[in-house]
Amino acid sequence: MLCQFCHTFFSGFKEIPEEEKSRMVGNVFSNVASNYDLMNDLMSAGLHRLWKDRLVSKLNPFPGMKHLDVAGGTGDVAFRILETLNSVKSRATQDSLDDNLHEETQIFVCDINPKMLNVGQKRALERGLGEDKSLIWVEGDAEALNYKDNSMDGYTIAFGIRNVTHIEKVLAEAYRVLKRGGRFLCLELSHVEVPVFKELYDYYSFSIIPAVGEVVAGDRDSYQYLVESIRRFPSQETFASMIAAAGFQKVEYENLVGGVVAIHSGLKI
Amino acid sequence: MVRASLMLLKDAGRGFCNSLSQMLVCPLSKQPLRYSEETNSLISDAIGVSFPIKDGIPCLVPMDGKIIEADDMPKTDDAADLSSKNNQ
């Protein structure tokens, strides 16, 4: 169980002090980086792609926007934002004002783990986005961001916030860097309360996932960590109140697949 | 806006263009960064710390920061300075 107030948490039955958490998480993601996307496809039967599509459609990207995607390592969300903007651009009449706006678009992909960023850069090349000047890769810490106050139109964090040590600091930094009118969007694995489905989901999580991790990635422990970290994360309601406590207005959440994932959003007024 | 200033130079050693320097700041002081071509790093003059750029990726995690004054001091003091800074 997580003790949110004393910031200690439990991996299985072992208690881990918070200064250990970021080191452990670092190891987990360095180990999983090369298999990250394959494992996501396997574990979610490809559904993670739809969830990310939904996140980006809620974001409503616009040309010229400054966007920060945190814990965005392998680039999934950033690529979707760019592709949304590029498809709008190719359908619209060519106009020099629009061209200038598109050139002003900046999408910062921020991740604390350089291995994840390197995978992202390679994937960008494969997707034909390697030369896109709007995509900017930066190694940074969600709890101590390297961006100016009031500089971002949008902030997304997909499947990253459950791995941080201090959720409140991440939310405070998100609030700080967003412009007034800017939107915070978080996609994260969440809690299922639907009867029967909950039991099936628990079985899937604790019996199937770590076994698949062992077979596919040769790493049972990292995927054991994954399923435990999901259970430790605050409930949808608790997380929503934390977002509001950071200063965000109009805080809402949408459950997908009965709460397997949730998209929380907030607005900086 | 002048087109040239919008060109984003991502490769290591090709410079830190204006539009990026307007967006990136020091993660500790939140003050502007200055690109140092000779060390290929970003300098936070406000607190005298430099952050490396590896494979064209700026490393702006607080722990990546290296105190600049340490370069002028004997090697044994570097670790002590950095750890005392990080413990603050």
From TrEMBL, chain A:
A GO molecular-function annotation: 2-methoxy-6-polyprenyl-1,4-benzoquinol methyltransferase activity
Write out the entry's keywords from A to Z: Membrane, Methyltransferase, Mitochondrion, Mitochondrion inner membrane, S-adenosyl-L-methionine, Transferase, Ubiquinone biosynthesis
Q: Which InterPro entries match?
A: SAM-dependent_MTases_sf (IPR029063), UbiE/COQ5_MeTrFase (IPR004033), UbiE/COQ5_MeTrFase_CS (IPR023576)
Q: Where is S-adenosyl-L-methionine annotated to bind?
A: T74, D111, D141, A142
Q: What is its EC number?
A: 2.1.1.201
One term under GO cellular component: extrinsic component of mitochondrial inner membrane
Name where it's found. Answer: Mitochondrion inner membrane
For the keyword RNA-binding, the answer is no
Could you say which residues form the signal peptide? none
Q: How does it sit in the membrane?
A: Peripheral membrane protein
Q: Which reaction does it catalyse?
A: a 2-methoxy-6-(all-trans-polyprenyl)benzene-1,4-diol + S-adenosyl-L-methionine = a 5-methoxy-2-methyl-3-(all-trans-polyprenyl)benzene-1,4-diol + S-adenosyl-L-homocysteine + H(+)
PROSITE patterns per UniProt: SAM_MT_UBIE, UBIE_1, UBIE_2
GO:BP terms for this protein?
Answer: methylation
- In its keyword annotation, does this UniProt entry include Ribonucleoprotein? no
Coiled coil where?
Answer: none
**Pathway, per record:** Cofactor biosynthesis; ubiquinone biosynthesis
Q: What does this protein do?
A: Methyltransferase required for the conversion of 2-polyprenyl-6-methoxy-1,4-benzoquinol (DDMQH2) to 2-polyprenyl-3-methyl-6-methoxy-1,4-benzoquinol (DMQH2).
Q: How does it assemble?
A: Component of a multi-subunit COQ enzyme complex, composed of at least COQ3, COQ4, COQ5, COQ6, COQ7 and COQ9. Interacts with PYURF; the interaction is direct, stabilizes COQ5 protein and associates PYURF with COQ enzyme complex.
Record PANTHER family: 2-METHOXY-6-POLYPRENYL-1,4-BENZOQUINOL METHYLASE, MITOCHONDRIAL, METHYLTRANSFERASE
The record's similarity note reads: Belongs to the class I-like SAM-binding methyltransferase superfamily. MenG/UbiE family.
- Protein name, per record: 2-methoxy-6-polyprenyl-1,4-benzoquinol methylase, mitochondrial
Q: Whose protein is this, by species?
A: Castanea mollissima
Q: What is the lineage of its organism?
A: Eukaryota, Viridiplantae, Streptophyta, Embryophyta, Tracheophyta
Gene behind this protein: COQ5
From TrEMBL, chain B:
Signal sequence extent: none
List, alphabetically, the SUPFAM superfamilies matched. Trm112p-like (SSF158997)
What InterPro entries has UniProt attached to this entry?
A: Trm112-like
From what superkingdom does this record's organism come? Eukaryota
Pfam family name, one: Trm112p
Q: Which PANTHER family does the annotation name? A: PROTEIN PREY, MITOCHONDRIAL (PTHR33505:SF4), ZGC:162634 (PTHR33505)
UniProt lists the family membership as follows: Belongs to the PREY family.
Q: What is this protein called?
A: Protein preY, mitochondrial
